[in-house]
Amino acid sequence: MIFHRLLASLCLLPIAGMAATEAAKVTIIEFKAKPHSYLTHKPGDRFAALLPQLIAGEVKLDTSDDKAFLTSLLKALDIPISSQLLVFSASSLQSEIINPRNPRALYFNEDTYVGFVPGGKVEVISMDPEMGSIFYIFDRLQRGGPMPLIARSEKCFNCHAGNATHRVPGLIAESVLPMLSGASLETYRRDEQGHHIPLNKRFGGWHLTGGHHLTETHANFMGRTSSSRGFVKTAVEPGQMSDLNLHLLPTSDILPNLVHEHQIGFENRVFHAAYLFRQLMAQSPGLLPTAAKAEIEKHSKDLARYILFADEANLPRQGIEGDATFIREFQRNKKPTAGGVSLKDFDLSSRIFKYRASYMLYTESWQKLPRELKERVYYKMAEGLRDQNPSPAFAHIPADEKRAIRSILKDTLPGLPNWWR
To answer: Is residue 170 part of a domain?
Structure first.
């Protein structure tokens, strides 16, 4: 069996002389400097591909009003409206106008994220296969006028290239208790993204709708100061203080919230590893420095664990009920096997997905990682998915699900190493 021969098959980068147990050093990444040169890199993300078509008038956006403009932009970027999330904590470049009376809407697909604030501007984060997050912002729409001007934004680096993303351009989500102004009174989680975060630490400052079955949640609450008690939490349901007609939907469903969290955790881990690998390789072209082995091994292990949902947070005992429209639109580009199963099949009773291997493996973010780095992660995944003596780190996946995952990957995922065949 191919999975029984894996341990002897992978050592594609020449690395020698260092025990794998040696503590990994922490490399400081300077994403604006060589070998990354983020600021001078020519973007290859989805929005960058659309931009010349917008400028040339080959793709036209509806400027009659904010909602029409947003709808046409989402269509041009192939982003489903059903992915809408609503957040009312002061965040983004437009924090001064985001609060419980004027929540910000977010929309996303696998590689592009759009933010819209009523009375404000439209922001876009689009994932470049080499550099990760590229930040764009439209000028304020003039109703019925020409398409607003678009600019790359470097101000986003203040948050999106800080501690939360390991100092490389990335994606962030926080959980806080906002006041009426949108400013935070209390923080429940920060500088951390991913599906491992317990649900009772998420959603602070976010609206949450649909069949989430959460009995303890920070969602749909704001804080008010009190001279006697410091501050008190007050419920603020969607539309209670804001006009939901200003948004494309009145909802912020639990399922797109969970999918969004998984994606941003994936992207941040992938691009942190990509920047690290590129920087270490530049120190000794063609040969990964011996001293870097432990650091690369650590990131490969962490990526494999994340891809296979090793630390996924528990869903409520009753499971969740995802929005049917979002499920249909999310699965529109799934990659099924001949038997019809895919990594985008949902479970929703005890976990998000039926087969616990991330569909984000199909994205360019993953596909265009350096081959050597990907194969190290594949090897770590294979250790957990094999039939005989699998790594105990992946004991959360039963044997039949492991076989199904191996089959799905083999049948549908481009670029798998030959030893998966």
So the answer is: no
Comparing C-alpha atoms, which of 46, 49, 30 is closest to residue 38? 30
Question: What are the two backbone dihedrals, phi and then psi, of residue 175, each rounded to the nearest 5 degrees?
Answer: -135, 110
Residue 298 lies in a domain: yes
SS3 122: strand
pLDDT digits (tens, 9 = 90+) for 194-207: 999 999 999 999 99
Dist. CA 373–CA 13, nearest whole Å: 9
- Give the span between the Cα atoms of 397 and 375, in whole angstroms: 21
**Residue labelled with tokens 């001007």:** 149
Confirm whether 216 is domain-assigned. no
DSSP conformation letters of 201-217: GS-TTB--BSB---SS-
Q: Are 75 and 83 in contact (CB under 8 A)?
A: no
State how far the Cα of 4 lies from the Cα of 10, in Å rounded to an integer: 13
- What's the pLDDT tens digit per position in 239-270? 999 999 999 999 999 999 999 999 999 999 99
Q: Domain limits at 369?
A: 2-33+259-420
The count of domains in the chain is: 1
In a domain, 120, yes or no: no
> What separation in angstroms does the CA of 357 have from each of 124, 178, 270, 409?
27, 35, 15, 9
